[in-house]
From TrEMBL:
Homology family: Belongs to the UPF0057 (PMP3) family.
InterPro entries xrefs: PMP3 (IPR000612)
The name this protein goes by in its record: YqaE/Pmp3 family membrane protein
Compartment(s): Membrane
Length: 61
């Protein structure tokens, strides 16, 4: 579900993973048509890192 959000509303992804400052920066970037693609790529990358961090935390327990 978060991947779909990352593709459609990249700024919202950052709020769902607990990075509101990055979400605001991403929203500003997304407001331009040229910035939409980099914002989407950034959101998908951040989501990937978030998922990896969660897996590492689970394996450390």
């Amino acid at each position: 579900m978060r991947l779909l959000i990352a593709l459609l509303l990249p700024w919202l992804t950052f709020f769902t993973i607990g990075r509101p400052i990055a979400g605001i920066i991403c929203l500003i970037l997304q407001l331009t048509l040229i910035g939409w693609l980099p914002a989407t790529i950034w959101a998908v990358y951040a989501l990937s890192q978030y998922n990896t961090d969660k897996k590492i935390q689970r394996s450390m327990r």
